[in-house]
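Ops channel
N.P.: pipeline sanity check, posting one input/output pair.
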């Protein structure tokens, strides 16, 4: 599938660094990381770019007026450079906390403005643009395939332009390549260009930086599902106009669905949405959040709840406890390395095949998690076989069980709701005379440090020790 050198080239739309990334944003990068790990598992190499949008993202939908970074700088009484630096560093810390593999490149938009201008000049030469007071615009009517990715029906969009948010813009779908400074305005971020002083449009940076770092055509481009309607549609339009070779610009587009923030949306004193540091302050391990995300499929919406995160943390603790009982755990990246560790344990090899099938079927991470949990209970697997399955799961899920401190697992408190549920499940299994399941559930409770006693009134439980 990728170029003949076996390297998959992949671009992920990165953060606009005007505030902390919220936990929804981090779903997008956890998804890209899962995709990358799945490719590595299959034996490809991956060259990954995540850009840093430190200019270009206007506050207003219509792309007029101030940049998000300029507004943040004014609000926080810092320079735009300080804002970019602060939130870029915070973003890197979030990536590390979630065990997201570092990209090979993190290009910053402000470092590529000359290249963006050159790119736009070629679009001008090719007749894809027009200039109005607010800047240089891409003329989407010149692109017959415009909007295909987002399944956008452009027929109604021309009429929409009568509601002129942007004076002179010919169609609502037309977007800014260059955002000219309004007369008398002196912006905090400004560059000179053939279209006057101003700043580049947001969509331009991704086309320019991806092509410079990965080549004109590359394999994969990812982002949140909101990008499928606008940002990626515009990236494709300008890139294919620029290249003019009649080929699709990028081979595969993959989008993660949104994390629904629900009640967590309510901003706190700092006025921001929930972050991974907020979760940590509430006692949640960042990797419990990663596990929570992986418990859903990336193309399905996922509702964030504290209860859901809580049970993910319980699962994480249990997994760390069980895997640490296996002693030193090997670290693998690829399927063949995992199979080599399983040796001649056919049961473990069977699980690794199933795991391979699950991750290959559009990244079925919930299935991988279930396989891991099942095989840690499965007496058919040898200890070495279990180590191989744990190593394989760590590779694709990005949960480094072998490196996690047991302290992270041994939180002082016991999740009583989870215990109650296990006790009830065991009772149901007993009523159904499913003794094997009842015993397995009792074993699970023992591992949590809980003792169950069956009385005439039903089961009761106490903590051991
Ligand atoms: P931004 O910094 O706003 O450009 O967003 C960074 C990434 O997060 C983009 O890929 C967005 O599509 C994605 N994103 C934003 N909100 C959410 C959400 N609630 N759930 C999942 N992804 C999101
Ligand atoms: Zn982008």
């Amino acid at each position: 599938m990728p170029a003949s050198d076996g390297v998959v080239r992949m671009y992920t739309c990165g953060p606009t660094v005007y505030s902390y990334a919220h936990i929804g944003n981090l779903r997008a990068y956890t998804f890209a990381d899962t995709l990358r790990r799945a490719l590595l598992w299959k034996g490809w190499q991956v060259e990954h770019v995540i850009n840093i949008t430190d200019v270009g993202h206007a506050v207003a939908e219509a792309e007029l007026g101030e940049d998000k970074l300029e507004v943040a700088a004014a609000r926080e009484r810092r320079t735009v450079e300080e804002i970019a630096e602060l939130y870029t560093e915070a973003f890197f810390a979030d990536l590390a906390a979630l065990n997201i593999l570092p990209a090979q490149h993190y290009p910053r938009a402000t470092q590529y403005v000359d290249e963006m201008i050159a790119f736009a000049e070629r679009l001008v030469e090719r007749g894809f643009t027009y200039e109005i007071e607010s800047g240089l615009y891409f003329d989407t009517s010149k692109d017959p395939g415009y909007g295909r990715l987002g399944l956008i029906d452009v027929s109604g969009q021309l009429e929409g332009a009568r509601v002129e948010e942007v004076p002179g813009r010919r169609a609502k779908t037309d977007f800014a390549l260059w955002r000219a400074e309004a007369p008398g305005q002196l912006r905090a971020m400004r560059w000179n260009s053939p279209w006057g002083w101003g700043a580049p449009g947001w969509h331009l940076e991704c086309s320019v930086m991806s092509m410079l770092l990965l080549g004109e055509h590359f394999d994969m481009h990812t982002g949140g599902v909101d990008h499928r309607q606008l940002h990626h549609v515009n990236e494709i339009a300008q890139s294919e106009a620029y290249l003019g070779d009649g080929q699709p610009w990028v081979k595969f587009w993959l989008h993660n669905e949104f994390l629904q923030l629900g009640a967590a949306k309510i901003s706190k004193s700092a006025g921001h949405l929930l972050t991974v540091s907020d979760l940590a302050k509430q006692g949640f391990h960042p990797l419990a959040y990663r596990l929570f995300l992986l418990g859903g499929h990336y193309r399905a919406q996922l509702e964030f709840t504290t209860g859901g995160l809580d049970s993910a943390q319980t699962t994480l603790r249990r997994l760390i406890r069980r895997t640490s009982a296996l002693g030193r755990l090997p670290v693998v990246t690829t399927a063949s390395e995992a199979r080599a560790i399983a040796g001649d344990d056919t049961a473990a090899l069977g699980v690794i095949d199933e795991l391979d099938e699950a991750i290959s079927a559009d990244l079925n991470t919930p299935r991988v998690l279930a396989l891991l949990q099942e095989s840690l209970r499965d007496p058919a697997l040898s200890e070495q076989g279990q180590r191989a399955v744990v190593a394989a799961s760590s590779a694709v899920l990005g949960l480094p069980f072998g490196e996690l401190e047991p302290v992270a697992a041994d939180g002082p408190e016991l999740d009583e709701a989870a215990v109650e549920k296990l006790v009830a499940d065991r009772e149901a299994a007993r009523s159904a005379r499913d003794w094997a399941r009842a015993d397995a559930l009792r074993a699970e409770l023992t591992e949590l440090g809980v003792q169950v006693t069956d009385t005439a009134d039903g089961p009761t439980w106490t903590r051991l020790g």
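N.P.: looks fine end to end. The chain has three domains: 7-260, 282-410, 416-463.
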